[in-house]
Every structure is written in structure tokens, then in C-alpha cells.
Amino acid sequence: MALTRTDSGPLFTADAANTLRLIGYLAVAIVLMVADHRGAYLSHLRYALSAAVEPMYRLAALPAQIARESRLALADRERLTEANTKLSQDLLLAQARLNRLSEVREQNQRLQELLAVQRSLDVGVQLAHIVDIDTDPNRHRLVIDAGAHQGVQIGQAVLDASGIMGQVVEVLPNVSTVMLITDAAHALPVTVERTGMRAIARGIGALDTLNLPSVPISADLKVGDRLLTSGLGGHFPAGFPVGSIRQIKPDASGMFAVAAVIPSAALDRSGEVLIVHQLLDPVGPPAPIAESGPPANLSESPAHKK
Question: Could you read off the pLDDT of 184-203 as tens digits, one per residue?
């Protein structure tokens, strides 16, 4: 069967022309390979062809590379998020521990100061902790963790390492209520350390101020004078700091002066207090001595016996 013009003959046929053509192709291929092997004539051609084909390789590998980088980025983001969360938690925990350590250090300092005061006093004292405060702004009172079972009694003085805080006004089995010296219902006999003048310090309902009312205009008072407990009344031991005078001004009548006093005690910061149990040297006249004399049977004279 004859071949049409559109049909191409097979490469390997019995026709001699096709065989010669094949041999010629093989010879050219061998010559080119030998020439390229010895002289590297086709290296530039291969280099150019590889440079032209390389973008195709990169383009074909681009989706897989994007997917791989996306997975890595997502994994890195998750690891960074977890690490950030853990670091935030560790920082919060460390900050809480640091705050707690600071509070413990301050508490230790306060206890050391109270211990020093306790050792220097000539009165019996008892350590107690503040467990609650009165939220009524008109009542400056707090609750301590010592009551009747611990030997606390109404009227006992309460102080901290810096000065007088108040006195016990209510006693329950295991807790007691303390009225601060700044309560509007509290009054405290005091004396001016520099001059010895006696006065009454009254609370006005402000934690940072006491008042000395009805002070004579001629009184020798100065800003900065320290006030100490006078010991009068027997509830507060004499010589304890009460406060220092901050301001002196005439009262409404103009006949007397009013002194504003800054309390010495840390009324809004103290966490521990000392309760004074007794006064070894009470202020006031001594107790009357019982009358003594001869026995009644010796009081009769010999004349009476006759």
C-alpha cells in the first residue's frame, strides 16, 4: 500500500534510504558527543537552556513551597502564642510573689519594731492582729483578734510602734473592738513635751488630724511640738507619743486657739498592735492605808478594869 503525502514513513524499514538516514543521524550524534566531551562546545547552550527552564521548575514548585511555609508560619505562630502566654503567666506569678515578699518584709519590719517597743516598756503588753475595720466613715474603729479568752478588758490602751492608736471599747470571746483616737467620740489627756502643758486631744473624724480645743491664746505652743500621753485617767500609760502640732489658729470666738495635731501612730497602715494590760506606776494618789493601832482589848485603861 502506497503512502500518502500526509503519512510519515517509519524510521526502521527495509528501505535502504531510511537505513542510511538513521546511520547518518547516529554518526552526527556521536560526533557531537565526542566534540562536546573534548571541547565542551555545548556547555554554553546547556547553561542557557537550563537558565530558561529553571523558572519553570521554580513555578512548578511554588505551590508546594507556599504550603510548606504557611504550615511553618502557622506552627511558629502557635508556638510563639503559647510561649507568650506562658511568659505572661510566669510574669504574673513572679509579680505576685514579689508583692507577697514585699508585704512579708514590711510585716516583719513592723513586728520587729513592736518587739522593740515591747522590750522597752515597763508595762505588760499583748500582741494582736487587726482583722477588720468599721466601714462607717463616722466611726473610726477596728477589730483585733484578741478577746475575753485572751485576757482583754474594756478600757485597755492599744498602740503600735509609733504611738497611741486608741482603746478597747467592746470585748467578745475572741475578738475586741478598738476605738481610734481620731474617732469623734474619743478624748485623750495629753501633755506638751517641750513645756509640760496639759490639754485634751479630741478626734474629729479624720484619720490624719486631732484637735486641741480651747487652748489659751497665751499658751506657749509651737508648730512641731510633740504631744505625749499624760497618764491622767489611768487608761493610757504616761509618756507615749500621741502626735505633733501641725497648725495653730484662733477659734471662732477669738478668745482661744485651736491646734491641729498629726497622729504619731500609723492608723491607716498598721497591721499589728500592742494591748497594754496594766500600769505598773498608776498616776494618782496612793490607795489609803488601813488604820492600825493597839488591839481593842488593850485600849481599856487599868482604871476601867477596876
Answer: 999 999 999 999 899 999 99
